[in-house]
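At this stage, I wrote out one protein's amino acid sequence and its backbone structure tokens, and that material follows here:
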Amino acid sequence: MLKYKGYHGKVEFDEEAGLFHGEVVDLRDVITFQGKSVEELEQAFRDSIDDYLEFCQQRDEEPDKPFSGRLMLRLPTEVHRKVFVRAKKEGKSLNEYITEKLSAVN
């Protein structure tokens, strides 16, 4: 996983084309990049982020930011109650319990 200015890029290798291609993964906007070597790929990733930020600035728009870690969630009352009770039985806050369970998802 590539990292630059708080953004993360996922990379795959296209064997048929003989190049790496990637995408910034934690945005709603689509930012892609590619390169034939690791060095070229890393530079393309950084350039794509910089170009995106400059483009947003030129248009006087706020760039999409990587996820904040905050998640608003609505649950049925009974599910909320069950999760809360389970968290308390394990001596955890609701946030700790849900974070633990969601972190187990691959």
The first strand starts at residue 2 and ends at 4. The mean pLDDT is 91.
